[in-house]
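step: validate -> pass
step: tokenize input -> pass
step: predict -> running
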Amino acid sequence: MVSIKDIALACGVSTATVSKALNNREDVNAATRERVQEAARQLGYMPNATARALKTNKTFNIGVLLVDKAGSGLNHYYFASILDSFKVAMEHNGYDLTLISNQNSSYYDHCIYRNVDGVFAACVDFGTEEMQNLLDSSLPAVSVDYVSPGKYAVVSDNAQGTRKSVEYAIRMGHTRLAFIYGEDSQVTTIRKDAFLRTMAAHNIPAEERFILPGKYLHTELAYHLTLQLLQEKDAPSCILYPDDMCAVAGMAAIRDKQLVPGKDVSVIGYDGNPALRMLGPRLTTVQQDTREIGNRAAVLMLRQLKKEDIPADERVSSVGVSLLEGDTVARLV
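step: predict -> pass
step: emit ->
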């Protein structure tokens, strides 16, 4: 087995220099660091994780919570994309990821069992006592789309996204807007409030019969809620959905009523799933910046792991969104 001493002999440097270079320490000349790392690759050096953990009191392992109510897990486009970005950034800094569950123990107990250095909560029911206990523990933690007082989080600007959707529909001449929202959560509350505020700001009544509770990624429910809306007197001319999957299901319901999505009834999704936008007609949707969310989450995690004193106003990071215009919103004016 190749050791640090072997690399030191090959490069003509001390073992201390090799150790610093392999750990990307800045007090090593960049050229030397690159030469040492290249020698390690060529010699097939594999660091001893157990020895490193004993020496640094760190396992260089981050726990990940990805447990959404829809049961889609890693197939959930939004959270899977965020996790991929987070994974790349953390691996670049020498960390591995481990999925955490609560099947045989609590989230916190599983984190302790896996001996993780921190936990990344990308998708989970934050309202449970179990989750709050984890966030209140001494483990460094970063959550996505959930803000807890004094804790660390990265959030997509859901108020901005909903506002952009409503204002775009209004600019296109729509005044009878329907809004289907997801399960109770901080994100849902923010989106509902933004919908109502934006409608009021434009002096357009938000009809209660057009505001319906759905579920994220629940296509069957979205389909039936769309049929329900289309049966209303003076049915809505534009329907806003909680995600792109539900929007596609809504378009199927519109077609089944012998209507044309984007012509007879307009549709706006949420997430910016590129695969779903390839379907016809091209979906108008809100694109969330998953790469930036993952990167910022990694930065917050690394700052905690380095035990930085992070000011309160830097503990929550908000990432902007953009509206992707497609072919599913008819111009009425």
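step: describe -> DSSP finds twelve helices and twelve strands in the chain.
step: cleanup -> pass
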